Amino acid sequence: MQQRSPNGGGGLQSPRSPSSQPPFLSVSVSDPAKMGNGVQAYISYKVTTKTNFPEYQGPEKIVIRRYTDFVWLCDRLFEKYKGIFIPPLPEKNTVEKFRFSAEFIEMRRQALDTFVNRIASHHELQQSEDLRTFLQADEQTMERARSQDTGIFKKKPSDLMQIFRDVQSKVTDVVLGKEKPVEESNPEYEKLKRYIFELEDHLAEAQKHAYRLVKRHRELGQSLGDFGKAVKLLGACEGDALGTAFSELGAKSEMLSVKLQREAHHLLMNFEEPLKDYVRAVESIKGTIAERANAFRQQSELAEMIKLKEIDLNKLRLLRSEKMLDAEHEYEELKADGEEATKRFETIVRLMNEEIVRFQDQKTRDMGQAFHEFAKGQARLANAIADAWRSLIPKLDSLSVS
Amino acid sequence: MNGFEDRKHEESDEEIIFLLDDSSMKSKSSSNYKSAMTALSDDSSHPLSYPADTDPLISPPSPPPVLKNPSSSDDSHTDPLTFAELDSVSPNSNGEQPWTAGNPSEESDSVELSSELPYLKITVSNPKKEVESSNSIVPGGNTYVTYLITTKTDIPEFGGPQFTVRRRFKDVVTLSDRLAEAYRGFFIPPRPDKSVVESQVMQKQEFVEQRRVALEKYLQRLGEHPVISRSDELRVFLQVQGKLPLLPTAAVTSRMLDGVTKLSKQLLGDRSGGQIQPQDVVQPAKSRWDFVRIVKEMNQSVSNDWGGSSSAIYEEDAEFLQNKERLLNLEKQLTNSSKQAEIFVKAQQDIAETMGAFGLSFIKLTKFENQNAVLDTQRKRAADMKNLATAAIKSSRFYRELNSRTVKHLDTLHDHMGLLLGVHTAFSDRSSALLTVQTLTSELSSLYLQAEKLETFRSDKSKTIKLGEVKEAIRVTEDAKSCATSEYERIKGNNRSEIERLDRQRKEDLKNMLKGFVLNQVAFSVKIGMEWAKVAEDMPADGC
Predict the structure, then answer these.
(1) Could you tell me the pTM of the whole model?
(2) In this predicted model, what pLDDT tens digit does every residue of A371-402 receive, in sequence order?
(3) Strands B162-168 and A25-35
(4) DSSP secondary-structure letter at B309?
(5) How many interchain CB pairs under 8 A, A with B?
(6) Terminal alpha carbon distance of chain A
(7) Which residues are within 8 A (CB) of B155 and not within 5 positions of it... i.e. 6 or more apart?
(8) Coiled-coil regions in this chain (chain A) (predicted)?
(9) For A343-385, where are the E strands, in sequence order?
(10) DSSP for B384-408?
(11) What is chain A's mean pLDDT, rounded?
């Protein structure tokens, strides 16, 4: 469980005074447990909240949640906080079969923990009512909330992915100059969109190689272990000092094999997973881009409609038609809608500008951490290998004497 | 701005080209152990690896400054080891570097090719298609491939430091057969297969190349054998220009026919031709006169395999049986170790390649972030990525270099596995020699029995004549038996000295293999560790 320092407005670390503690909200996701049997089986997680926020019940609360609950929270936030880059969730389905294992569960738990903590430390998102529900509601309330959504919002993960795909094709089309729908003509924003889409490609490739590297470590470990076993048998056959040397070589090989497997795991959890998280984050941004495009389109459409309505209204005024009053009424409504749409759009723009800075900042830190772990792990491994083999040198040298 | 970007573009393109070369190397690797290993060891031309002259089998790589031990948590050393200290760890009283194996002053200590052994190096190259000149029914004639065989030696009998000759595969088969006949009991390295099937299936070029490599290995091994390298057969093969003046081994059938004629002459009392020399008897029956013996020995040889129990021969030499058992087991373990070594080497190669590709993908990311950087955080991230990528590419190079050396060392396992194959022939030479002795012994006893019976009928004139003949047969067979016995003893002696020689050589080679393997692993792991330690230091844990 990590205590993330909240950034922005809500929860600056002020010097401690005896009377007031700085507001904090800290969450941890732990203790995955398999529930149910067969096709219905799923994993449940313990979600522990520690906080002094007034809106929350008490200093500590523990609830049990499953993956779909997290998805619900993500969808709600996405709906309500347009313009903000909602932290990404780990994938629902896995393609690689081998990941249905303790390792997969641990990776998912870690990703879910990161997810909730990022929400809890975001100055706006942490105020969310849905978050409060998620962190505190009993299971029945949670289930009810979950099932309500499927009717009203229809924002299943698959739908979310569809939006991303639509956005991708729309934006790509625009970037490629194929289509000219109603789009912002903001060169800086264009640049940002292009950046996000290309970034995703580069990151996906890097992540692919990172994953392969994990596999290579495992393979090297496995083959070294097998080599060690074979060499031990050879040593038994040779006998005498040479035989002993071989069996020591074999023993070291087997030991290093274990270290390699461990390093593979470390690489997976502390490097490849953060890289994947980065990829997911970029995908989430694409969703926000889609929302912004939607908002812009709505605003433009309404602006169009208002213009047309104005023309209509003037016509009716001249004709002194009895429909004029209704038309006036509609016109006023449209104008109100238009103002709202404009406000929504401008909020998204403002938020996105802030979010981009926050995102870049966070990613530089996250990646710096990941790189450090990578380098540390590689150094540790290389040194362990050097140490192990080095310890054999005196024995091998004494062999020549015979 | 443009110029700067272009330069960066070049940099990363260079890297891309290097790694494209890498992927073309991958497509060359085949499932054939030999070519996979040698393809890897040809790595010295790979742009991402070090220049070929820094082969630590000859000289150590340039030592870096004093090593740091960054991961102090599991650091059990008190002093960091420099490369110089690494070398002085050797208990050699004269303090010489243990791994400057090519260093002549050190040779006598740890290297198998000490200055005492004569130098004989054989290379096979330049395959050429040639046409069968005579007796071609098919227009255009039969084509075959010849190989250029170059020998460099200081052995005086060869009378020259370097010479070449062109030979075809059939010539190699002839050489191999003649050696097998002449050097019974010796561990003669087996020749490359005829592989008729492969020659049809594989691409011609691939097949010729595979064969060239195999021939080189075979001839080189012959050259390394202390007795065979001095043989007339080998010398003639390596030196005499034009047609190979060794008779190809006659087919069994023609020999048999030859033998049958001689036997029938003998039975008809024809003394004119067919004087049988005792030493002729000594060859396995399938090459000589006794048709009956041919049949007998054929029946026996079916059950005389390397690992099986031969009920016909009574092998009483317990030491021999022990050795046989031991060498059988050794062959199995060497085969297994060699296989596992191959898999390990492939894994090392894979991690080198993946690390390189991984580094490259981050170089691309770096370039991308720099091109699109709006914020300082992006530039910082790009700088971090570049650090990581550079270290990854460097360590990829190190892994590659380490691997090409590992290949050379672990190849020893494969080599000795091959040498042990020669043992099969040597032991079956022994078995068949023993069989000959025992067959002759039993023949003798039946002849004696015959003679005894005939003795009692002295009065009968026809029986007296018969007795004379039998006595003559006894005399001949006694001579043959004593020849066969001394041949058997000779082969036994060869076996024994060969086993000793092989054991000695193998132990020596394996010692060097272990040393070389371990030292290289240490050296390169240290280098790789240092690269990463630097990166970890430059990018502290809090990510700032």
Answers:
(1) 0.72
(2) 999 999 999 999 999 999 999 999 888 886 54
(3) unpaired
(4) -
(5) 224
(6) 59
(7) B118, B119, B120, B229, B230
(8) none
(9) none
(10) HHHHHHHHHHHHHHHHHHHHHHHHH
(11) 85
Do B413 and B33 form a contact (C-beta atoms < 8 A)? no
Structure tokens at B256: 């048999």
Partner residue opposite A383 with nearest CB, options B375, B529, B542: B529
- Reading the block at residue A23, the tokens are 């507001």
Q: Which of B329, B344, B522 is the closest to A386 by Cβ?
A: B522
Mean pLDDT by 10 residues, chain B (544 residues): 42 40 36 41 42 38 38 35 36 34 36 58 88 64 85 84 90 90 85 73 79 90 87 90 75 42 46 46 45 51 43 71 90 94 95 96 94 88 93 96 93 88 86 90 90 79 83 91 92 90 91 94 96 89 57
B435 CB-side CA count, 13 A: 26
Taking CB atoms and an 8 Å limit, are B381 and A363 in contact across chains? yes
Burial class (CB in 10 A: 0-12, 13-18, 19+), B501: middle
Q: Helix %, strand %, coil % for chain A, to 5?
A: 75, 5, 20
CB A236 within 8 A of CB A215: no
A368 shares contact with chain B (CB less than 8 Å) = yes
Q: Which of B504, B361, B8 is nearest to A240 (CA)?
A: B504
What distances in angstroms separate CA B410 from CA B115, B133, B341, B510, one per listed residue? 24, 45, 7, 9
A360 → closest Cβ in B347, B377, B518: B377
Determine the number of helices (DSSP H) and then strands (DSSP E) in chain A.
Answer: 10, 3
- A320: exposed, middle or buried (Cβ count in 10 Å: 0-12, 13-18, 19+): exposed
